[in-house]
Amino acid sequence: MGNNLNQYKDKLRKNKLKVTEKRMRMIETLLEGDRYMSAKDIQEILKPEYPGMSYDTIYRNLYTLKDIEVLEQTTLSGEMHYKIACTTHHHHHFICDDCGETKVIRYCPVETWQSELEDVEIKNHKIELYGLCGACKEARIY
Amino acid sequence: MGNNLNQYKDKLRKNKLKVTEKRMRMIETLLEGDRYMSAKDIQEILKPEYPGMSYDTIYRNLYTLKDIEVLEQTTLSGEMHYKIACTTHHHHHFICDDCGETKVIRYCPVETWQSELEDVEIKNHKIELYGLCGACKEARIY
DNA sequence: ATTTTATTTCGTAATCATTCCTATTTACAA
DNA sequence: TTGTAAATAGGAATGATTACGAAATAAAAT
């Protein structure tokens, strides 16, 4: 794989976290998926390799990886989902309702909103677009 | 109260739903609160009046009222929250992390995003700003 | 190579939001 | 006023998530 797993190893080490096999496979799984995945999704995918992988491990690692900003999280239909975070530029996502694929959206008017609401202090914001990606739009039968 | 509860009664009847005491008190509670509230919030507030009000009733009514667009919903820290919907114009919210007060934001660049992502079909979107409202910002001790 | 420390297991249990089930009650139409 | 369809109470069930604690394992530091 030409995936730059080293940057993730470095990040783990920088945070005094150990580079374990399971952790790396979770990161790889999320890199390969490149969409929001639930704890169960990840367990399913890694089941052949690690049949006895405990939920405890998955949840703990998802939490840890989100904490060091390797992952970003969002709630999709009641379940927490995670995906690899992109740290190079601020962005949000379009999420396909059918296949779960995500697309990056760049435009973010947070300054516009800050000036619309002068008296408040915006500390955080969530933007998500939902719908059908090109492929799923084609595949739809009406 | 000068609150126009009649429009809500009409809306219920239009949808062949019964105008019950509990339903109307839930609507009143949400009107008075005018912020996102959880099922538990509502149960707490109505407890003196209806000590035995069942969760089923609360959840079913929240769902029903969202369904007929009397309420809008969002997930806040893992819990579903509801507030009275404004149907006259499209908008989103700023939500105060401290007191839960909401402020309407008008600017919504959904067309901009649609042209940024030509191939997808945006069917839905979620925009939420979080932070401190004017009052809570003042009240903060640093 | 040895030690130290973090991580995983594993089984189980607690928690919490939400939903489901059935008997009973209520709103409202006829 | 009566019939019936909808709504509710009360509690059990579900499902995601977190917690736990001790033993086993693995990673990294010396």
Explain briefly what this protein structure is.
Helix content of chain A is 40%, strand content 23%. Chain A has 142 residues and is of the alpha+beta class.
General description of the model:
2 copies of one chain form a homodimer. Chain A has 142 residues and is an alpha+beta fold. Chain A has 2 domains: 5-84, Orthogonal Bundle (Arc Repressor Mutant, subunit A); 92-139, 2-Layer Sandwich (Dna Ligase, domain 1). In chain A, 40% of the residues lie in helices and 23% in strands. In chain A, a hairpin with a 2-residue loop joins strand 1 (71-76) and strand 2. In chain A, helix 3 packs across helix 4. At the A-B interface, helix 5 and strand 5 of A face helix 5 and strand 6 of B. Strand 5 of chain A pairs antiparallel with strand 6 of chain B, so a sheet runs across the interface. The first copy, chain A, binds a DNA duplex (30 and 30 nucleotides) through helix 2 and helix 4.
